[in-house]
Design goal:
It is built from two helices and five strands, in the order ββαββαβ. It is α+β, with helices and mostly antiparallel strands.
């Protein structure tokens, strides 16, 4: 199962400031797992887009062996473009999880 924790700030707006994703979906064998592929595309595209199109500074660590990616914004947390990109990622992941709760779970944590 893919376990995703989305970190939101404690302020009134509860904006996303990072996330961690870990695990494999187990929907199908490697190379055929559409849940894992969809999740990976959303996460990686979000990180790449934030890096390319915003002035946000962040820490990002990945461990391919354990299927783990951790992303935390460290500077310019209120950048409007990055907030939209992260909300779009949350929407996409939530939609995947809605129909595939056996393979992906999403939790939220205030930081």
């Amino acid at each position: 199962m893919i376990r995703i924790t989305i970190y939101k700030n404690k302020s009134d707006n509860h904006e996303i400031v990072g996330f961690i994703s870990q695990g494999h979906a187990g929907y199908d064998r490697s190379g055929k797992d559409i849940v894992c592929a969809a999740t990976s595309i959303l996460i990686i595209n979000t990180i790449n887009s934030i890096e390319k199109f915003t002035d946000v500074e962040f820490d990002c660590n990945s461990d391919e062996k354990n299927a783990k990616i951790k992303f935390i914004i460290t500077k310019n947390k209120n950048n409007k473009e990055s907030l939209v990109l992260l909300k779009a990622m949350e929407l996409g992941l939530t939609e995947i999880a809605r129909d595939n709760s056996k393979y992906i779970s999403i939790t939220f944590e205030e930081v």
